[in-house]
Amino acid sequence: MHPRAGATDLEDSLDELALLTSTAGAHVVGRLTQARARLSPATYIGSGKVEELCRLAADTRADMVVFDDDLSPVQIRNLERAIGCKLLDRSALILDIFARRAQTAVAKTQVELAQLDYLQTRLTRQWTHLSRQQGGIGTRGPGETQIETDRRLIGQRMATLRKRLMRVDRQRATQRQSRRQHRTVSLVGYTNAGKSTLLNSLAGCNVLAEDRLFATLDSTTRQVMLAPGDAVLLSDTVGFIRKLPHKLIESFKSTLDEVRASDLLLHIVSAVHSRYEDHIQVVRATLEEIGAADKPMLLVFNKMDALRYPDQVEALKAAHPECVVISALEGTGLGTLRARIASALRSGEVEGIAYIPVSDGQVVARIYRTASVLAQDHIYARGNGRDLQMVTRIRFRVPRRDADALLAMLAPYRGLEPAVQE
Ligand SMILES: Nc1nc2c(ncn2[C@@H]2O[C@H](COP(=O)(O)OP(=O)(O)OP(=O)(O)O)[C@@H](O)[C@H]2O)c(=O)[nH]1
Ligand SMILES: [Mg+2]
User: Fold this and answer.
1) What gap in Å lies between CA 10 and CA 49, rounded to an integer?
2) Looking at residue 292, what is its pLDDT?
């Protein structure tokens, strides 16, 4: 059911809804659309359409109706009453899929939080609706007390879940801190674009990848070699979709922190999908929503093995000159991808050399914590008003964002230089 969209978008949008519905384990038996400028506050669709929907549901013996848009609690109740079967809106459907697919403790906690949030807003509105119906003083019925109890219980449970997630955030922040000397790259993209398949191909691992929406709900990090001796950490994460419920994005903060903290994003796009340009826009908008839009990003078109016409690769490159075209499944283009990742990371980094007196070992340790160390040895140096002294010579590479802090820390040693010029 999708009452508002241009005719061209309509079928694609319903195709996606059908895919979501079957991912949730249901079988699609019919479709209905309505072009309508004004939506009905009571039933969303017009009254004639409600009758048509009742007939279709009866004829196909449907036991559930799914709407492609989000409905108000009142609309859901009215429609359920009229049709006589269960009704889900798009957010509820996506939440259901996430709940089914959640494997890790963190993903489960995040999904439950989003579900309770969804439920809570429904309860609140139902409650105001009830109180308006009954009106007046002294009409607080048992139903209302029950709802208040429910709301309190939901609130308590949500507080517990939030606390649990805050602990996860702290743990993950510590983990990231300990990995700081590694550069980190995150895979982002529309669901089913091939992110997990690419992680598997690049890292030689076996993360779950399937032809299903939202196969991945939590982040997984693996080491990937860009060249001998040049390793990065690559993280796979939850895919995005059109109209992803805002609350769900908020609940997935712990998982999406990985994306925000990375040095580079690989935006994976399925080049065989007819709406891939829309997918690119949805991913960009979602990245903006999670505060990761300003990250350096590489656009990667995937599934080139499944393109039907050879000139499609040229067309992609003409439309997106900076893109890389690959097949994660067959391993095509991965050499180029590795090289492009390496150069994108280098352009976001500064290289430097420092001479640290051997007595200041803690400074060397701090360089190791923030920068990647390329080489280290011991030589004699002079300067800073002192005679020859033994120093640690250290050549490092540091992300541009950390460079200022590191250079400030090294300022006292700037006067030192090698005693013997090589
Ligand atoms: N033909 C072809 N299929 C691919 C390629 N890469 C991935 N696929 C298929 O696309 C489907 C989705 O792949 P995944 O790697 O699970 O996609 P994902 O982006 O991780 O999806 P979510 O975790 O759901 O967001 C699977 O059936 C893969 O086999 C490719 O290069 N070519
Ligand atoms: Mg995946």
Assistant:
1) 17
2) 92
Side chain identity, residue 178: S
Structure tokens at 401: 């964002």
- pLDDT per residue as tens digits for the range 249-306: 888 888 888 899 898 999 999 999 999 999 999 999 999 999 998 889 999 999 999 9
Does the C-beta of 110 come closer than 6 Å to ligand 1?
A: no
Beta strands of 67-127 (E only): which ranges? 86-88
- Distance (angstroms) between ligand 1 centre and the Cα of 198 equals 8
Which residue has the least CA distance to atom 30 on ligand 1?
Answer: 303
Helix (H) or strand (E) holding 375: strand 372-383
- Atom number of ligand 1 nearest to Cα 330: 31
Q: What pTM was computed for the model?
A: 0.80
Q: Choose one of 103, 269, 329, 330 to mutate for the ligand 1 pocket test, by most ligand atoms within 8 angstroms of C-beta.
A: 329
Q: Which residues surround ligand 2, an ion (CB under 5 A)?
A: 195-196, 215-216
288 CB burial (10 A radius; 0-12, 13-18, 19+): exposed
Q: Is 206 in the pocket of ligand 1 (CB under 6 A)?
A: no
Distance CA 36, CA 26 (A): 28
- Residue 356 to residues 351, 381, 406, Cα–Cα distance (Å): 16, 9, 13
Report the nearest atom of ligand 1 relative to the CA of 236.
20
Write the DSSP string, 125-170: HHHHHHHHHH-STT---HHHHHHHHHHHHHHHHHHHHHHHHHHHHH
Q: Which of 354, 332, 369, 54 is nearest to 194 (CA)?
A: 332
Q: Whose CA is nearest to atom 9 of ligand 1?
A: 194
Q: Report whether CATH 3.40.50.300 matches the domain 181-347.
A: yes
Between CA 299 and CA 323 the distance in angstroms is: 5
The finding on whether 329 has its CB within 6 A of some atom of ligand 1 is: yes
Q: Ligand 1 in contact with 264 (CB < 6 A)?
A: no
Distance CA 252, CA 246 (A): 10
What's residue 240's pLDDT?
A: 94
Closest CA to 180 of 125, 233, 105, 244: 233
Residues 6+ apart with CB under 8 A from 295: 259, 260, 262, 263, 264, 265, 287
Domain regions of the chain by residue span: 7-88, 181-347, 349-418
Determine the pLDDT at residue 7: 59
